[in-house]
Amino acid sequence: MIHEKVLKDLGVERMAKIENHHNFAWKEQYKGKELMVHRKGATPAAEGILGIIPGSMASDGFLVRGKGVESSINSASHGAGRQMSRTQAIKNLNKQDMLQMLNDQGVTLIGSNMDEAPMAYKDIHTVMAAQEDLVDIVANFSPKIVRMADDGSRED
User: Fold this and answer.
1) Which pLDDT tens digit goes with each residue over 121-135?
2) Catalytic: 78?
């Protein structure tokens, strides 16, 4: 819905649509059988399938093409992954530090809370290097405007 609203507001047309749910069950063929594959924190990476692997609100995201590695159940990471829980981030990180980091990188924040602070996430480049056998990087992009959900601490 967010993307549809942005497209409408900008008056532009979609070039491609990529489904990138990270907590979703997909009906797929796996080892010759039709199965439901539930991916929690993972994105589909079947051969030739496009996906998006985001970093944090202050780090690169990647457009990727899956290589179809069966031993990974045709999956790759959904993103950088957390190095601290939402609750830990809220309790331990400094909002001014986060805002300064975003400002230094030219990122405009229009909504979020400390649970999504960039410092709560792993380094996306390390994560991407660890899965180069699962996906090919097609392109990368850097965030410029960020709108995240508000405090998600109740999710821990």
Assistant:
1) 999 999 999 999 999
2) yes
Long-range contacts of 103-109 (CB under 8 A, 24+ apart): 105/58, 105/142, 106/144, 107/57, 107/58, 107/143, 107/144, 107/145, 107/146, 108/144, 108/145, 108/146, 109/57, 109/146
Average pLDDT, rounded, for the chain: 89
CA 92 – CA 70 distance, rounded (Å): 39
In this prediction, residues 80-94 reach a mean pLDDT of 94
Q: Whole-prediction pTM value?
A: 0.83
What domain range is 112 assigned to? 2-155
Residue of 22, 38, 78, 125 marked active site: 78
The residue type at 10: L
| 107 Cβ contact partners less than 8 Å away, ≥ 6 residues apart | 57, 58, 143, 144, 145, 146
